[in-house]
Amino acid sequence: QVQLVETGGGSVQDGGSLRLSCAASGGTWNYCMGWFRQAPGKEREGVAATLTNTGRLYYTASVKGRFTISQDNAKNTLYLQMNSLKPEDTGMYYCAAAQTSTYCPSLLVRNFAYWGQGTQVTVSS
């Protein structure tokens, strides 16, 4: 059973930066790991993902060029560096792991089996 714990959320001004962390335990650190977010009243959406054993990266179009997903294999930790933040980036951000180590499935909630509790990101204009 994989446990995921996110940290690093907070409140920033439009154009600011934040870095989220996701510490994983209880598994092999050999998964597709992803970041999702959910704004109030909206469905949870995929933001970025990476295959931990190859480092291959995936981004949704709205964050490409502003967000960077990375990992520290020694610490079993996933990161999301968020730059040039906009008010529409506001939401609860979740770390997730898919039960596959050979490819990353589409960034859909149903494709990821393990979830953290989330960390709030608020961007004010």
Short description:
This protein is an all-beta fold and 125 residues long. It is 0% helix and 50% strand.
Fold and architecture overview:
The chain has about 120 residues and is mainly β. Helices cover about 0% and strands about 50% of the residues. It is built from no helices and 11 strands. The strands form 2 sheets. Strands 2, 4, 5, 6, 9, 10 and 11 form a 7-stranded mixed beta sheet that branches. Strands 1-3-8-7 form a 4-stranded antiparallel beta sheet, with no helix packed on it.
Helical content stands at under 10%
C-alpha geometry: globular
The radius of gyration is 13 Å
Mean pLDDT: 94
Query: What's the end-to-end separation, in Å?
Result: 40 Å
SSE class: mainly beta
The number of distinct helices, counting runs of at least 4 residues, comes to 0
Proportion of beta-strand residues: over 45%
Question: Key terms for this structure?
Answer:
125 residues, mainly beta, 7-stranded mixed beta sheet, 4-stranded antiparallel beta sheet, 0% helix, globular
SSE layout:
Blueprint: E1 3-7, E2 10-13, E3 18-25, E4 32-38, E5 45-51, E6 57-59, E7 67-72, E8 77-82, E9 91-98, E10 114-115, E11 119-124
Parallel strand pairs: 2-11
Antiparallel strand pairs: 1-3, 3-8, 4-5, 4-9, 5-6, 7-8, 9-10, 9-11
